[in-house]
Specification:
Blueprint (H helix, E strand, L loop, with lengths): L3 E3 L21 E5 L4 H18 L17 E8 L5 E10 L3 E9 L8 H15 L4 E7 L3 H9 L3 E3 L11 E7 L13
Parallel strand pairs: 5-6
Antiparallel strand pairs: 1-2, 2-3, 3-4, 4-5, 6-8, 7-8
Length: 189
């Protein structure tokens, strides 16, 4: 699959997100499919980092299977100037005309640059283009840095939603998208 490059605001707020070889802080964002090798590479890194946090909880057979390529509308990836994938987030369709963000991840050596917030914004924009009014996402009790990011970016806590409602370790969030009038529906703190 080829990468489709899109200009998205970079962490520094520069709308030109194409990489500059002299600037290690700049990345190029691309919309790819769920099965893209760069997306799969980042998900593997995420699994290697996150799974040990939950190992003490033992098997969790009630968890849903991973998304399929048919469920994921878009996956955004940040690439360095040398082509290394360093950040990602995806937009997934759920049953009942619900949408969620999946697999927000930034490689450890690229954290602290705002890439996760830009990845969230990219997925939110993709959802708004599809007319999505409200987005949801799921994280877990052993991912406090993720929960802090979502709160900073305007997401509010909600009860775990299907397919995570049977997982006692799920922490879920939602956000109304302003382009769809969600901001007028009230503040969620």
């Amino acid at each position: 699959m080829t990468h489709t490059t899109h200009a998205i605001a970079s962490p520094a707020g520069n709308p030109d997100s194409d990489p500059a070889p002299a600037s290690p802080d700049r990345v190029r964002w691309a919309a790819v499919g769920w099965d893209d090798p760069a997306a799969a590479e980042l998900r593997t890194l995420m699994d290697a980092e996150i799974k040990p946090r939950y190992a003490a909880f033992g098997p969790r057979p009630h968890l849903p299977p991973p998304p399929t390529a048919d469920e994921v509308a878009v996956t955004w990836i940040a690439f360095t100037g040398s082509g290394e994938p360093v950040a990602t987030a995806s937009l997934r369709a759920l049953p009942g005309d619900r949408w969620e963000i999946k697999r927000v991840f930034v490689r450890a050596d690229h954290r602290g640059r705002g890439l996760a917030a830009v990845a969230l914004a990219a997925v939110e924009a993709s959802a708004a283009e599809r007319g999505v009014a409200e987005l949801m996402l799921q994280t877990g009790v052993r991912q406090p840095e993720a929960a802090a990011l979502y709160a900073r970016e305007g997401w509010y806590r909600i009860p775990p939603y299907p397919p995570y409602s049977r997982d006692p370790y799920s922490v879920c969030f939602a956000k109304w998208l302003p382009a769809t009038g969600g901001a007028e529906r009230g503040s969620h703190a």
